[in-house]
Amino acid sequence: MRFHFALALQALWTAVCQAAMQHYPAAWGHYDVCKSQVYTDEGLTWDYMACQPEATDMTKFLKVTLDPPNITCGDPPETYCALENPYMCNNECDASTDELAHPPHLMFDIEGRNPTTFWQSTSWKKYPKALLVNLTLSWNKTIELTDDIVLTFESGRPEQMVLEKSLDYGRTWQPYQFYATDCLDAFTMEPKTVQDLTQHTLLDIICTEDYSRGYVWKNDKTVRFEIKDRFALFAGPRLHNMASLYGQLDTTKNLRDFFTITDLRIRLLRPATGATMVDETNLSRYFYAISDIKVQGRCKCNLHAISCVYDKDKLGCECEHNTTGPDCGRCKRNYQGRAWSAGSYLPIPKGTANICIPNNIGPVIRPNVSSLGVANRKEVAPQVALSTAPSVHVANSKRARVCDNELLRCQNGGVCVNNVRCNCPATYSGLLCEKSRCSSELGGCRGPDSGQAPLTPPSAFRLLLLLLLGSVLLGEAAML
């Protein structure tokens, strides 16, 4: 009897502990809420948070362009050789027949069909002139990559290829990665892999030989640009410490830009030959064919939107926080009371909204641009509160007096002294007690590695329940 009673108490104790733990947020948030209503001493208020759209398959929204434009096979019709048997050259490509055509959109259709659908170039009939093809993927929108870029070839994988990116809608291009069977010969670069990179060399442009070997390897068709392996340099091998990655993305513009694109360009420079010499008597063996391209990412909305809509063949963020523009990149008209700023991932897990404020709010406290503190949190709707930057100053100091108006009231339990300054509780600091003393740490008050919000004390009910359980356990032990 006593044994069963002890087991019941143990189960109850475990349930209480789990209930207490479930109150706390995960180690890193999805940033899927831009604002929520909360009750404070001042009434119903808005709690503003950094937010971003969910990652999705971005190939649904792109436009593909080929250069040269007549590089797709089938006009005129031609025969080519099968991948499995390069000497069986009775396959047909005919643009005028649906069953035999291989247009570009087949790189982005549903996979798993039998037979496989794919885009295909003309064969290398003009050898020794290079068979060059540029495939350009354009979104007309800034995109943030969240997973590996994966190309699946139905021909042999190219012996030479370059993946390039643009951040200005195709006006200028930068290499992302070089691919070759022989990096030294093709690009005068030492071969490397993503595993050779470190946090300090993550932005290095490398040439890899991992994806260019072999002609007829049926089960080895993919070419990758490894996004997640680069994320793992900061977030750990299983991406379990996203707080660390978000902290780096938040504070290092070059790193953030590295994973940001408006366009991708795949430059196919030399098809697979499978030998040191090209068989000039059978040039139908050599061509490019791609069955699938995967680009996983999200619209860049500067942490000011959770939705990105595709309307009239164009992507655009549905902006919150009084921002506007395709990337939420500026304040709405009459909302320039504070200069526009991108949202911040920090502090984990809700980030900093950095909302725009109306022009007629009155005196404005402007943040130090280097601040990583909490801003715009728990403000009286529809107005906004102040940045918790380490150094703040008040615009038009002759009129801006603490406690003069709703915008300049002491926060978080601070008490106004002589209408000019706030006397803050021990756990807060700043001009208006707006800054938690431990909020500047990556991950908040639970330490730099956890990425979790500060622990809150258990409720009175839980404390009472714990005390009762302790008394019962002590009494049971005495009876034993």
Describe the protein in words.
The protein is built from 6 helices and 26 strands. The longest helix is centred in the first third of the chain and has 21 residues, at 2-22. Helix 1 packs antiparallel against helix 6 (460-479). It has 480 residues and is α+β, with helices and mostly antiparallel strands. Strands 3, 4, 8, 10, 11, 12, 14 and 16 form an 8-stranded mixed beta sheet that branches. The radius of gyration is 30 Å and the shape is elongated.
Q: Could you list the spans in which at least 5 consecutive residues all have pLDDT below 50? A: 5-28, 363-401, 439-461
Quantity of strands, as a count? 26
- Major sheet summary line: 8 strands, mixed
How would the global form be characterised?
elongated
Return the structural class: alpha+beta
Average pLDDT over all residues: 78
| Rounded radius of gyration (Å) | 30 Å
Q: Give the terminus-to-terminus CA distance.
A: 12 Å
DSSP summary: helix tally: 6
Strand fraction equals 15-25%
Helical fraction equals: 10-25%
Give a quick set of tags describing it.
15% helix, single chain, 480 residues, alpha+beta
Secondary structure elements and pairings:
Blueprint: H1 2-22, E1 35-40, E2 43-48, E3 56-57, E4 63-67, E5 78-80, E6 91-93, E7 119-120, E8 133-145, E9 149-153, E10 160-166, E11 174-180, H2 183-187, E12 207-208, E13 222-225, H3 227-235, H4 242-251, H5 253-258, E14 260-270, E15 289-294, E16 296-299, E17 308-311, E18 314-317, E19 323-324, E20 330-331, E21 365-366, E22 393-394, E23 415-417, E24 421-423, E25 428-429, E26 435-436, H6 460-479
Parallel strand pairs: 11-12
Antiparallel strand pairs: 1-2, 3-16, 4-8, 5-6, 7-15, 8-14, 8-16, 9-13, 9-15, 10-11, 10-14, 17-18, 19-20, 21-22, 23-24, 25-26
Helix pairs in contact: 1-6, 3-4
